[in-house]
Specification:
Layout: H1 2-35, E1 60-65, H2 71-75, H3 77-86, E2 93-100, H4 106-112, E3 119-123, H5 125-128, E4 135-139, E5 145-150, H6 155-164, E6 173-174, H7 176-184, E7 189-193, H8 197-202, E8 203-205, E9 209-210, H9 216-223, E10 229-233, H10 237-249, E11 255-258, E12 270-272
Parallel strand pairs: 1-2, 2-3, 6-11, 7-9, 7-10, 10-11
Antiparallel strand pairs: 1-4, 4-5, 8-12
Length: 273
């Protein structure tokens, strides 16, 4: 009889334990799925608390979110110096260098970038939703974000930033129709495909000459004329920019990048051999 009562008590204790465990597990799962939030990521429409400088309350703000030692920030230094110089004394836009509140080397790094004349502020990157640097944000006079650009920008995206700021932007990119227009006015235009030979053999732009990107530095000066207008394109935006930069460094004065967007593996504007 005593053994039976003991077993009954043990059973009751175990049942309570199971119920308690189930309740705790349910609470934890509920908290995980219904109360946890994703990390904030800055987006257009967010508002950033920016204290305007004296007498500059109506200006928009161009915020350069940087980090000391950030390699892509350093590589973007020329572009930042370019736009900060162009906007110096602007009646419309104030340029601010922004660093994380925990960045102790911010002042020294800004000097290394040649941007020591910029106003600098510190903010909590986690609260703002800044996931990586560099990040550029254009905010109105109330601090509402209107445009955002992430990472090191290609020349094309740099031009888009300048256009958004109302600055003159050299457009290295041209359309197919512009190639035809240049030819109509008597310019000799050579279209260069910098894809690999295999991809070129599959499909390529009509009349394009194939010089793979890894051969452009040698074959470019030997096979192309400095007097001609050169139009390059590749399988990616970076390939075109690399080819253009290489040819410019080799002394070519008129080098453009064909502007197109891939809609299939071979891209529009391509024709079969």
């Amino acid at each position: 009889m005593q053994i039976s009562k003991f077993r009954r008590h043990i059973g009751i204790v175990l049942n309570f334990g199971i119920i308690f465990f189930a309740v705790v597990l349910t609470v934890l799962i509920t908290k995980e799925y219904f109360f946890s939030s994703e990390p904030k990521v800055i987006k257009i429409g967010d508002e950033i608390a920016i204290r305007p400088a004296e007498g500059e309350g109506g200006k928009r703000h161009l915020l350069l979110f940087l980090r000391s030692g950030c390699i892509y920030c350093t590589k973007s230094g020329d572009f930042y110096r370019d736009i900060s110089t162009a906007l110096k004394g602007s009646d419309d836009i104030r340029v601010l260098a922004v660093f994380s509140s925990s960045d102790k080397q911010a002042t020294e790094y800004l000097s290394e970038l040649g941007l020591s004349d910029l106003d600098m502020i510190n903010m909590d990157y986690r609260d703002l939703g800044i996931e990586g640097t560099p990040t550029i944000a254009l905010a109105d006079s109330s601090g509402v974000v209107k445009e955002i650009w992430h990472g090191r920008l290609s020349r094309r995206r740099e031009a888009l930033v300048k256009q958004a700021l109302g600055l003159a932007a050299h457009s290295w990119y041209i359309e197919e129709s512009e190639v035809d227009e240049l030819r109509k006015v008597g310019q000799t235009v050579v279209v260069v495909d910098v894809q690999s030979r295999d991809l070129y053999e599959i499909n390529h732009f009509k009349g394009a000459k194939n010089i793979p990107a890894d051969e452009i530095d040698v074959r470019g000066v030997n096979e192309l004329s400095l007097d001609d207008t050169i139009v390059v394109y590749g399988i990616s935006e970076k390939d075109g920019e690399y080819a253009q930069e290489t040819l410019l460094k080799s002394g070519f004065g008129k080098v453009h990048i064909l502007n197109y967007k891939f809609q299939n593996p071979n891209g529009p504007g391509y024709v079969d051999n």
